[in-house]
Design goal:
single chain; 580 residues; alpha/beta; TIM Barrel; 2 domains; 9-stranded mixed β-sheet; 17 helices; globular; Amidohydro-rel; adenine deaminase
Length: 580
C-alpha cells in the first residue's frame, strides 16, 4: 500500500491552518488571479495561497506573513485547474514517467493509468513499490485494476488470480476496475469477473467498460453488471445510447480513433448540449500523435466545434474528478485542493504558458522546468529483456492453411493460403509476409502468414506486443533472424533489417516494451519507423498499434496468442502453439 494512508498527515494539515492564521507563510501566492471556479462555472478574480502542494485559501485577502514566499502576479492571465486524463495506457513505447513529464508540459497534471504491463512484466511486490514511487512524483498518478490481459494467456488464472486482482482493487492509488476488454466472458456467465466488479463497487470505485459496437441491450446488461463509463462510442448516436443507459462518456481522440470532432458535431445535431457527463481521453495513443498536445489539443477541438470554453475546461478537469469522487483533491482551484494549476494567455487558448503540479513548477513562462531523475526501472523488475535462447532456422517453418489479413491498423481477418510458401524469401509479387509469435522464454511459437502489413518488408523483430512476447514479420527468413539477433542485443526493441543490414531500430530496454528516452526523442524515432515501414508498403494509420494488437483478442476477427491461432468471434483455438 501507499507509505501513508491519508493524502496529508495531521501535522501537515495543522500547518495548512497555521498559514491562514499567519503563523506560517505560504510557500507561494498567486495574486491578481483570474481563475475558473468549477462549481460556480465562471471566472473569478482573487488571490490564491499555496502551501507546498496544497491550495490553502482562495479569495480577496492577501497574507500578512510573506517570509520566504514566492509571489506571482497573474495579471493578464487565465488560470484553470490542471487537466486530468482518465484513460492512460502508459506503455505505448513511452513509459509512465516519460509520458507524465511530457503531458505536464501541456497542462495534463493528473493521469489515471492502466496497470496491465505492471501485472504482466513484474511481480506484485515490485509493481506496488513502483506505484508508491510515483506517489512522490510531481505529476499525480492514479491506476486501474485490470481483470484480464486482453488476449488468451496460457497462465491467465495465475496472472489475474483472485488474490492479485483483489490486492490491486484494495490499493489506495487504484480508482477503478477494468477496462472490461473481457466483457464477453462476463456476459457468458463468468462470476469471478462479476465478483471483482462487486468488490470494486463495495469500495466505491468505478468500472470502465470497453464496448465497441455494443447494442442498446448489451449496454443495458453491462450497466446492470456494474459498468459506469465507456470510451468506445464512435458516433453521436452511440454517445446518446450510452447516456440513455446512464453511462458517463469518455469522448475519444486517439491515433487510431480520432473521433472527437465528428462526435461533437453529431451530438449537437441530436440536440445534446449538456456536457456534465462527458470528458476526454486520448486512449494511449502512439508517441507521434502527442506531438501536437494531449488534453489541451482536445479542449481546443471542443471549442472549435461549439463547446463553450467553460464546459471544455471542465470536461478536461472537474468532470473527471467528480466522476472518480476525487473532486476534493482535483479539478478545482479552491481551498483544500492539490495545487495543480495551468496559466493561460487567453480564455480560448488551452495551451498553458506555465504549469504548476502539486505546487511545483513544471513549466514557467514557456520554458520547461527540469524535474526528476530517470527511474531505475531495473530495480522495479523492468530491466532489459534477457532472452536465453536464439531464433533457429528450424523455427521458420510455415505450413499453416490460412493466414491473417489486415483490414486496417488493428482489425484482422482470416484468409486461405492456396499457393507455395516454401521459400527462404517470399516472391516480390506476394502481398504476404511470414509472421511468428514466440514465447519470450523460448518455449513455444506460432507461425503463419500476414497479408497487407507491408509488402516490401524483409525482416522485423519486435519485443513490443500486448503480452511482451516476440513478434517476427518479413519476407526474408535471414533478415528476420538478423532483426531478432539485434533486438536481443538491445535488450528489447523494434528492429527492421533488409539485405543483411539493420535499417532502423527503436531500443526498448524497459521490460522490452518501453523506451527509457524522453518523449521528444521517442517521437522522432517513431516517426522514422513509420516512414521506413510506409516505404515498404505499410499504408494504415498506426504501425505501433498494428504490432500491439496482433495478439489482442478484444478486437475481431483472428489473432495469434500464447495459446495459438484464435477465432475471436467463436472464442476457440484454431491451431495450438508449437513447442520448441
Amino acid at each position: 500500500m501507499l507509505d501513508q494512508r491519508y493524502r496529508w498527515k495531521n501535522k501537515q494539515i495543522r500547518e495548512h491552518v497555521a498559514v491562514l492564521d499567519g503563523n506560517l507563510a505560504p510557500t507561494m501566492v498567486l495574486k491578481n488571479a483570474r481563475f475558473l471556479h468549477s462549481t460556480l462555472r465562471k471566472w473569478i478574480s482573487g488571490h490564491i495561497w499555496i502551501y507546498q502542494d496544497r491550495i490553502v485559501y482562495t479569495g480577496d485577502k492577501l497574507p500578512e506573513n510573506l517570509a520566504g514566499c514566492e509571489v506571482v502576479d497573474c495579471s493578464g492571465q487565465w488560470l484553470v485547474p490542471g487537466y486530468v486524463e482518465p484513460h492512460v495506457h502508459p506503455f505505448q513505447l513511452y513509459n509512465p514517467q516519460s509520458f507524465a513529464l511530457y503531458a505536464a508540459q501541456t497542462g495534463t497534471t493528473t493521469l489515471i493509468n492502466d496497470n496491465l504491463m505492471l501485472v504482466l512484466l513484474s511481480d506484485k511486490k515490485k509493481a506496488f513499490s513502483l506505484v508508491q514511487r510515483f506517489r512522490h512524483f510531481p505529476v499525480t498518478m492514479y491506476w486501474w485494476a485490470r481483470f484480464d490481459g486482453q488476449t488468451e494467456l496460457a497462465n491467465e488464472e495465475m496472472i489475474f488470480s483472485h488474490e492479485s486482482v483483489k490486492s490491486w482493487l484494495e490499493h489506495d492509488a487504484v480508482l477503478q476496475g477494468g477496462e472490461l476488454t473481457g466483457w464477453p466472458k462476463l456476459a457468458d456467465g463468468d462470476d469471478l469477473i462479476l465478483h471483482w466488479i462487486q468488490e470494486a463497487k463495495r469500495m466505491r470505485k468505478k468500472i470502465e467498460g470497453h464496448f465497441p459496437g455494443a447494442s442498446e441491450k448489451t449496454l443495458a446488461k453491462m450497466m446492470l453488471f456494474g459498468a459506469d463509463c465507456d470510451h468506445e462510442a464512435m458516433t453521436g448516436k452511440e454517445v446518446l445510447n450510452r447516456l440513455m443507459q446512464g453511462y458517463t462518456i469518455s469522448l475519444r481522440y486517439s491515433s487510431i480513433r480520432p473521433d472527437l470532432p465528428a462526435l461533437l458535431d453529431e451530438i449537437k445535431t441530436l440536440g445534446i448540449d449538456q456536457y456534465d457527463q462527458m470528458f476526454f481521453t486520448s486512449d494511449g495513443s502512439s508517441p507521434a500523435f502527442y506531438e501536437q498536445g494531449v488534453l489541451d489539443r482536445m479542449i481546443k477541438i471542443a471549442m472549435k466545434h461549439g463547446v463553450p470554453p467553460v464546459d471544455a475546461y471542465l470536461m478536461a478537469s472537474y468532470n473527471v474528478a467528480r466522476y472518480y469522487n476525487i473532486q476534493h483533491l482535483h479539478g478545482m482551484i479552491a481551498t483544500g485542493r492539490v495545487a495543480s494549476i495551468n496559466f493561460l494567455e487567453s480564455e480560448t487558448n488551452p495551451v498553458p504558458v506555465s504549469v504548476l503540479s502539486k505546487g511545483i513548477w513544471m513549466k514557467k513562462d514557456g520554458k520547461a522546468v527540469e524535474q526528476e531523475e530517470p527511474i531505475d526501472w531495473e530495480s522495479f523488475g523492468h530491466g532489459p529483456l534477457q532472452l536465453e535462447w536464439d531464433l533457429e532456422y528450424d523455427d521458420l517453418q510455415f505450413s499453416m492453411p490460412f493466414g491473417i489479413e489486415m483490414s486496417n491498423s488493428v482489425i484482422t481477418k482470416p484468409y486461405s493460403i492456396t499457393y507455395d510458401v516454401s521459400y527462404d524469401v517470399l516472391p516480390d509479387d506476394y502481398e504476404d509476409n511470414f509472421l511468428m509469435l514466440m514465447d519470450k522464454k523460448g518455449k513455444w511459437r506460432i507461425n503463419t502468414l500476414i497479408k497487407g502489413f507491408a509488402k516490401g518488408l524483409m525482416g522485423l523483430a519486435s519485443s513490443y506486443s500486448s503480452t511482451g512476447d516476440i513478434l517476427c514479420i518479413g519476407k526474408s527468413k535471414s533478415d528476420m533472424m538478423l532483426a531478432f539477433k539485434r533486438m536481443k542485443e538491445l535488450g528489447g526493441g523494434i528492429v527492421i533489417a533488409e539485405k543483411g543490414e539493420i535499417v532502423h531500430e527503436i531500443p526498448l530496454p524497459v521490460g522490452g516494451i518501453m523506451s527509457d528516452q524522453n518523449m521528444e526523442d521517442l517521437i522522432g524515432q517513431m516517426k522514422k519507423f513509420a516512414e521506413v515501414l510506409k516505404k515498404r508498403g505499410y499504408h494504415y494509420d498506426d504501425p505501433m498499434y498494428s504490432l500491439l494488437f496482433l495478439c489482442a483478442t478484444h478486437l475481431p476477427y483472428i489473432r495469434i496468442t500464447s495459446k495459438g491461432m484464435y477465432d475471436v468471434m467463436k472464442k476457440t483455438i484454431l491451431f495450438p502453439t508449437i513447442m520448441r
